[in-house]
Write a structure and sequence with these properties.
The structure is a single chain. By secondary structure, the protein is mostly helical. It has one domain. 65% of the residues lie in helices and 1% in strands. The chain contains 26 helices and two strands. A two-stranded antiparallel ribbon has the order 1-2. Helix 4 packs antiparallel against helix 15. InterPro entries: NCS2 (IPR006043). Keywords: Membrane, Transmembrane, Transmembrane helix. It is a multi-pass membrane protein. Its main location: membrane.
Length: 524
């Protein structure tokens, strides 16, 4: 038997991911684009509903307040997505709410000056205004780092090797939002997970009118079937005598969103009153803004692969971060109770559907804005049990993580140096945040617990983020361990051409601003 040739053993590295039906600047038909946009909108509801549902009751808010916050978050989510896809990185990314802001926001909620307020509604409004003020001030971090191109300069220290743990942990680091949540209601979570995998992978070659319907709309079909099944279980009284925690996670009528939602409500700036400003709150929130910046950097690079585009050049990445800062400023002005970051689940859906079209994401932004103003209709979709979304996250977060691992193809993984950096960064990126989470659950405060609340919030927020810990470890090791003689092993010969806009001719096709705006903002 003849020995296999080298090209039969390994696969050559590829700048752009193959196998996608539509890339960033190619579009499906209008009908298909609208349906895919609606699917992205439905997926974005998970985080948009979960964050206010968790925080508003702690603030003294009612179900009506919760609905208004969800509507406002969806409204700003749509605006930020449009801004990012038009003027930011121009990648097909949904800009949604972020869990990174939870630590400083919970700290504000527990501030003694706010908890001492007896009237629940007044306490809710005062807490909301305090969060708004902190977000407005903290947004300046991303605005300055982005538009001054400081983040572009920082990104010159990144390499494919250093980015592998960061991008991978953008997905893997969210493992606690996956099966641990599915396990809270296995009778709807497990069927959803199985159905989604079967439709998107095993039956993906099923065509109707030359369209791979089951692959393209696997998420939408699965959610519809399991949502109807969950409603049937609810209506039949299957959960009538079950514990409250089970009912919250399984029933379709426990969110109280539809009954509390107005028919029409248009969010507007300062709708909760004038924001209040506190230096300690703002400083703690700045840590969340930095975490959001790092997580989004990894997500943008993953999205570029799943949209079959080149890696965004440094100035395009920095431009996107600047617009994301504007987005956080809008979060503060309108009062969304969280800041903005790239929606990881929607990035994963690009790969699941094999459609990386920018137009699809812009249509989904239109759905967000439209249904945020039509309260009852938006609340109907938002009442989908979160367990159903968690089942989809098990697939979509894993897909994004594997995109991060795909960057290893540009590095030399026969190098002990590279193995050390990758392994240590991945392990610490998972282990350190898990320690911070476990500690907080047991002690009801983070490991950083001094008299300076802002300092506690800063450290607890930074080290609770897997991609942030991975970036600190991987970039430090990659730029200090034998870095002079390891440029090729790190993947720098491939990476360097994407640093500048003119380094690759394809960048102009993917990242040029619309309306001929490059005349006024020439790329560097």
């Amino acid at each position: 038997m003849a020995a296999p040739k080298p090209e039969e053993i390994s696969h050559p590295p590829m700048d752009q991911l193959q196998g996608l039906e539509y890339c960033i600047d190619s579009n499906p038909s209008w009908g298909e684009s609208i349906a895919l946009g609606f699917q992205h909108y439905i997926l974005s509801l998970g985080t948009a509903v979960m964050i206010p549902s968790f925080l508003v009751p702690f603030m003294g808010g009612t179900d009506g307040d919760k609905v208004r916050v969800v509507q406002t978050l969806l409204f700003i989510q749509g605006i930020n997505t449009l801004l990012q896809t038009l003027f930011g990185t121009r990648l097909p990314t949904v800009i949604g709410g972020s869990y990174a802001f939870m630590v400083p926001i919970i700290s504000i909620i527990h501030d003694s000056s706010l908890t001492s307020i007896q009237d629940d509604h007044v306490r809710f409004l005062n807490t909301m205004r305090a969060v708004q003020g902190a977000l407005i001030v903290a947004s300046s971090i991303q605005i300055i780092l982005g538009y001054s191109q400081i983040w572009a300069i920082c990104s010159r220290f990144f390499s494919p090797l250093g980015m592998v743990p960061v991008i991978s942990l953008v997905g893997f680091g969210l493992f606690d939002r996956g099966f641990p949540v599915v396990g809270r209601c296995v009778e709807i979570g497990i069927p959803m997970l199985i159905l989604f995998v079967v439709f998107s992978q095993y039956l993906k070659n099923f065509h109707a009118r030359q369209l791979p319907v089951l692959e393209r709309f696997a998420l939408l079909i699965s959610i519809t079937v399991i949502w109807a099944y969950a409603h049937l279980l609810t209506a039949s009284g299957a959960y009538r005598h079950r514990p409250d925690i089970t009912q919250v996670n399984c029933r379709t009528d426990k969110a109280n969103l539809i009954s509390s939602a107005p028919w029409i409500k248009i969010p507007y700036p300062l709708q909760w009153g004038a924001p209040t400003f506190d230096a300690g709150h703002a400083f703690g929130m700045m840590a969340a803004v930095l975490v959001s910046l790092i997580e989004s950097t990894g997500a943008y690079k993953a999205a570029s692969r799943l949209a079959s585009a080149t890696i965004p050049p440094a100035h395009v990445l920095s431009r996107g971060i600047g617009w994301q800062g504007i987005g956080i400023l809008l979060n503060g002005l309108f009062g969304t109770l969280t800041g903005s970051t790239v929606s990881i689940e929607n990035v994963g859906l690009l790969g699941s559907t094999r459609v990386g079209s920018r137009r699809v994401i812009q249509i989904s932004a239109g759905f967000m804005i439209f249904f945020s103003m039509l309260g009852k209709f938006g609340a109907l979709f938002a009442s989908i049990p979160f367990t159903i979304f968690a089942a989809a996250y098990c697939v979509l977060f894993g897909l994004v993580a594997s995109v991060g691992l795909s960057f290893l193809q540009f590095t030399n993984m026969n190098s002990m140096r590279n193995l050390f950096i990758t392994g240590v960064a991945l392990f610490l990126g998972l282990s350190v945040p898990e320690y911070f989470r476990e500690y907080t659950l047991k002690a009801f405060h983070g490991p950083a617990h001094t008299n300076a609340g802002w300092f506690n919030d800063f450290l607890n927020t930074i080290f609770s983020s897997s991609p942030t810990v991975a970036l600190i470890v991987a970039v430090f090791l990659d730029n200090t361990l034998e870095y002079r003689d390891s440029a090729r092993d790190r993947g720098m010969p491939w990476w360097v051409k994407f640093r500048a806009f003119k380094g690759d001719s394809r960048n102009e096709e993917f990242y040029t601003l619309p309306f001929n705006l490059n005349r006024f903002f020439p790329p560097s």
